[in-house]
Amino acid sequence: MYTKDTVLLRTVTMNNRTTILVLLTFIGVGCLSAAIALLVTRTRPDANGIQQEYDLDLCHPLVIAHRGASGYVPEHTLGAYALAATMGADYLEPDVVITKDGQIIARHDNELGLTTDIAQRPEFASRYRTQNVDGRNVSGWFTEDFTLAEIKTLRAIERIPSIRPGNARMDTAFEVPTMQELIDLTKGLEISLHRPIGIYPEIKHSTHFKRLGLAMEKPLVDLLHSNGYRGPEAHIYIQSFEVSNLKELKDLTDLRLIQLFAGNSNLQPFDQFVTGTTLTYAQMATPEGLREIATYAYAVGPDKGYIIPRDADDNLGAVTSYVQDAHEAGLKVHPYTFRSENVYLPAEFRSDDPSPAALGDADGELRAFLATGIDGFFADQPDDLVRVRGPCEN
To answer: Start and end of every GP-PDE domain (predicted)?
Structure first.
């Protein structure tokens, strides 16, 4: 449990963008003993195939802060999550992995070298190793080899410093947070911002951790339930690129689930590869595949290329039927990931600035996807989407 009662104000100006007052709030939340009762709504087809509307007290489409406001602050830090909430994000999205002693923490990877200063820690040098993770050989330091107390000695660093040099100036400013610390922060922010804020965890490397005896599914559900998140009306989505763990979760909880799709549709979910099925993401993206997903999930999270693929010149191409097919199956659609830097944008929305960190016309891409009828966006710069989405009736 973090106990810092610190407020760091930082003014960030990026090219000609509006100056943003970055509020990185560390709220002392150990004294919070009760959750706020919130009347919230979500969408899920019931047993009769009739959709019940939820999330009506939130703005639409939903703004999902991808790893926090990771376009401005190093990802998966309490600073990034606090900033995202102050920018107007509806949901804060952590990827979650697990430690040697069974503690759930917010990291995109179980390998710690990309996002912490562990490579500069001689006391941990001997734990560097190579192992197979989800079918790939990966070298580094892994969360499953460290206790939470050891990981708490590390400091977060920017994953992509050449693209986000401003974030890199905040290297080592933040710890690696636990899922419980993010929950506590979110509840505190709901009070201070006077609005509901959801959490959108993604279980990473499910099969890998199960093989190690460190399955995250039940511990995560137990943690969420113990913090008052129960039923489809709770401000929670649980996401995974795998299939079997989502079906397992459906039996463990009534919290909403989301099936993610890899960018390469020819790939298989890793659990399906391990069990020897032939199921691919391309098959899952068909009308039949989406109807099957609707039997265990509330929503789908495709790479945005499933909705508007790019052409040979890297411009946006023709809109596919994916959104319509998913909606007809009773699923909400939350594509990933919207980023404002040129390197991530379609060609027609890039600026002429050759700098790796240069920003383009992110609004143009966002408007193109808004027109497809999607229900939410994963965004690294959530303020862009909040602005393009416009005023909220709520």
So the answer is: 61-389
